[in-house]
Request: fold
Amino acid sequence: MRQPFRKVVLMCMVLFFSLTVSMAMAELQYPKLGDKKDLIVKRGYSKEAAECVECHAKKTPGITEAWKLSRMAHASISCYDCHVVEKNSPMASQCEGQKGTSTFISPMVSSKTCARCHPQEAEQFGKSGHAYLAGVPVIENKKFQALMYQHEGAGFMGNVKGSPSNRVTRAAGCQMCHGTQVELGPDNKPINETWPGGVGTRYPDGAIGNCSVCHTRHLFSVAESRKPEACASCHLGPDHPNIEIYLESKHGQQYLAHGDEWQWGSAPDTWQPGDYTAPTCAVCHMSGIGELSTSHNVNERLKWDLMHPRSVIRGGERGDGEKGDKMMRQVCANCHSKTHTDIQRTVLDGAVELYNMYYDKAAQMKSDLKTKGLLKDDPWKDAFQELNYYMWHHCGRRARQGTAMFAPDYAHWHGFFQVFQLYKDMEDLHEYRMKHNKIEELSPVMSTGPL
Ligand code: HEC
Ligand code: HEC
Ligand code: HEC
Ligand code: HEC
Ligand code: HEC
Ligand code: HEC
Ligand code: HEC
Ligand code: HEC
Reply:
């Protein structure tokens, strides 16, 4: 700790920095812990645990340096606590440093390991859409497997099923956000590019969930997870532009204008208005605020299901919408009046109702066409079905989520404006097919158009 401090003092003297600047610099001594190894050993790690750190400081310095900066390193939680497994674990292997010893490790670390010390967070997480449900489309759903391996993976062009080029759309895309089932080879190491994975990753130890998606390794920082960037790696893009929506909202405006002055590191359940002036994703969806406690169950404060083709009030495995509505209103009440919040909630209900109206009418047209045999088997070659997909999955989600989180441009121009345009084109296709009792010859849809 001393050496960097001396460096800071020296720099200040040489550069005649003002007092404020030197204070800011003094903070920088904390990340510079290159010589902190002594401190660590003094903190009473077992000999074995200290050996992991010492060797890995040379072999994988990036990992070790990041870990040293973490709160957990300060509480003597080391590589040993998270990576060592029983010899009979399905994931057990040995790294170079352990050959000939009776210690076994795994590069995979599931939520089960974290649950040993953070049982409450893991339990709440397990009830959320981030756990089991996130893995369903990629792991269990045949329709989405056809999408990944047949359509996107060029199976339809004869790309060999199960080859790396066939698996890549899953491995580089869906898996990194949703997660996948990790498959192991004979040496208990992951195969078929099924690891690493996103939030709902299913591990060979039977656990579901990768906690490090919001607290990235090896810092595992609570401050990081409170920032919108923690969610933005997955919640973005044409089909769920949550970060874009947030940055467009007044809340995002304050974050961009003042976020670097906010207090990000307060202790759990003490992070409150004052530490920040406008909410981030975490404030509305997870963090303790006012009377609400922190929860790792992200569906707890939601009323509507805004991601599926038709929006309904949440129930069953998707949460409890009536309760969610109350809790979300409680979040707003910390900073807004009841009048203000009531209006916003009415606007959201109205957006859901309007969107559902479009969806239901489109569904009726689709059902007419189906009855008459006027839909192609391959929906990706059928203009009506492609437009229908964009209407709910892209524009319709943007309209609903843009409204829910107060981004007028997403609610309108990227949202309802496009919903109505697609709908009108679908009407034309429906009318043409019904009148001529045939499907038009060429699709007028440019699949990756500005939808
Ligand atoms: C608090 C728990 C925790 C601690 C402490 C920890 N790790 Fe990890 N480590 C993880 C998690 C979580 C992952 C990601 C695993 C996954 O995706 O399944 C990981 C991944 C890894 C990987 C494989 C991924 C890669 O980027 O290559 C290595 C190697 C690794 N850790 C080494 C270490 C070393 C060395 C230390 C000690 C200096 C350490 N870890 C400390 C939890 C931990
Ligand atoms: C004498 C050096 C040494 C010691 C001691 C050591 N390791 Fe390693 N470890 C390595 C090397 C080298 C690698 C390989 C890095 C690579 O794949 O390039 C490695 C790899 C790993 C990996 C990743 C394995 C994989 O398949 O991706 C983990 C996790 C790990 N070590 C954890 C530990 C833990 C936990 C301890 C202490 C119980 C430990 N190591 C002790 C040198 C060591
Ligand atoms: C052996 C026990 C143990 C394990 C295993 C463990 N933790 Fe921790 N963790 C702790 C302790 C103790 C603290 C409190 C450190 C402090 O505040 O001084 C902590 C703190 C944290 C924090 C708060 C950090 C901050 O910035 O304030 C996060 C986030 C966290 N752990 C995540 C994880 C994740 C994710 C895993 C699994 C990959 C994990 N922990 C595994 C014991 C553990
Ligand atoms: C969707 C993102 C996300 C995931 C996934 C996630 N966390 Fe967190 N975590 C957060 C946020 C946000 C906070 C800060 C809450 C607050 O403001 O106090 C937090 C806080 C924590 C803390 C500090 C104590 C507390 O409860 O506030 C621990 C420990 C922790 N998480 C562990 C875990 C573990 C273990 C897992 C996996 C089971 C996990 N996290 C998965 C976002 C996440
Ligand atoms: C690694 C990717 C990833 C990260 C990071 C992530 N999410 Fe998610 N999130 C998902 C996926 C995938 C789903 C859809 C799950 C499903 O299939 O139901 C989802 C769903 C949700 C939902 C709906 C939950 C439900 O139960 O229906 C909310 C709310 C949410 N995320 C909020 C957040 C917040 C807030 C953060 C940051 C603190 C965050 N997410 C970080 C991938 C991620
Ligand atoms: C950039 C990260 C990301 C990628 C890549 C991704 N998704 Fe998602 N997915 C999400 C998020 C985030 C949600 C939650 C959306 C919401 O709440 O509106 C979601 C929602 C879903 C849903 C609705 C929730 C459910 O469980 O029914 C399905 C189905 C789905 N994704 C399937 C897939 C498939 C299949 C792929 C790959 C072909 C894929 N996703 C690629 C992030 C991603
Ligand atoms: C001001 C509070 C607030 C902020 C900030 C906020 N959200 Fe939301 N979010 C909401 C509300 C309100 C809803 C709709 C809830 C309902 O149905 O009652 C919502 C809905 C969602 C959904 C849709 C879940 C579904 O049903 O498909 C996701 C995903 C989501 N938010 C993620 C995020 C992410 C990621 C961020 C940050 C980039 C964020 N939110 C920022 C309040 C907020
Ligand atoms: C931590 C405090 C905080 C929380 C919590 C919060 N907001 Fe805000 N909100 C603000 C601030 C500050 C502004 C910017 C006011 C301005 O434009 O002058 C704002 C602006 C808005 C605006 C833009 C219109 C306007 O009044 O300028 C809407 C809409 C909004 N919030 C709705 C909500 C809703 C609904 C919730 C709960 C889901 C919520 N907010 C939660 C602080 C908060």
User: Anything to note?
Assistant: Strands lie at 84-85, 104-105, 183-184, 190-191. Residues 3 and 138 are 50 Å apart (CA to CA). The radius of gyration is 26 Å.
